[in-house]
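Sync notes, pocket subgroup
Present: LS, DG
LS reminded everyone that the earlier model was apo-only. Rerun requested with magnesium ion included. Inputs:
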Amino acid sequence: MTSRPNGEPLVRLSGVDKWFGELHVLQDIDLEIGRGEVVVVIGPSGSGKSTLCRAINRLEPIDNGEITIDGALLPEEGKELARLRADVGMVFQSFNLFAHKTVLENVALGPVKVRKKPKAEADRRARELLERVGVASQADKYPAQLSGGQQQRVAIARALAMEPKVMLFDEPTSALDPEMINEVLDVMVGLAKDGMTMVVVTHEMGFARRAANRVVFMDGGKVVETAEPETFFTNPQSDRAKDFLSKIL
Ligand code: ADP
Ligand code: MG
């Protein structure tokens, strides 16, 4: 469960606002994520879930409020931003692997370029991570030669290679054929059990029940409800959450 040795949550958003033109897409968001905590974010399409993830690693600038990672304010730009962004691993719905690099190169590249690791060490670590996500035998292939589930597991290994403090997953299984969903979710459950701090946008209730400490329900750019998974799924408080769950369950 959540442990906060130095009292500071690993990720803290306070009073975060974001507009796209007239659209108030994140509305006064307050959210704290403790070390080792797994938070599942759910909500209807367009409620701001992806924007929230992108704001957390500054792929998307915010208009108001503060976001800290491990106590450090995220700056808008510059070297410091690159370093802090490397603290936040991100896995998207589309696998986003480099098509012209092998699986091994995909995983080893970031540590060499950004973390300045020696290549041999980065390769060795990449092989360990590929082992961990169950695709070690694919190391020398190109992404297009892998199934969607395998590619997504490589994407997870690539993010882990940067040794992030927190991992963000934005609908990581939404683009997968049904029979591949569990192989990706199983890797994520393993990460959660190993103590990784995770923010996971997903409608996979099974994952939420197995791995999440908290569910955050978003609608219309707001955090409408926060609860433990079992409570949220069996006894949602807000009408909007009830309505949403009645459509997806
Ligand atoms: P979700 O991930 O919950 O489906 P998003 O965060 O992707 O929601 O989007 C929230 C709202 O912001 C939607 O109405 C979407 O159309 C809008 N939006 C997202 N990205 C942009 C953008 N780059 N420019 C303008 N509007 C955007
Ligand atoms: Mg989205």
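DG: The chain is about 40% helix and 25% strand.
LS: The first helix runs from residue 49 to 56.
Action: DG to write up.
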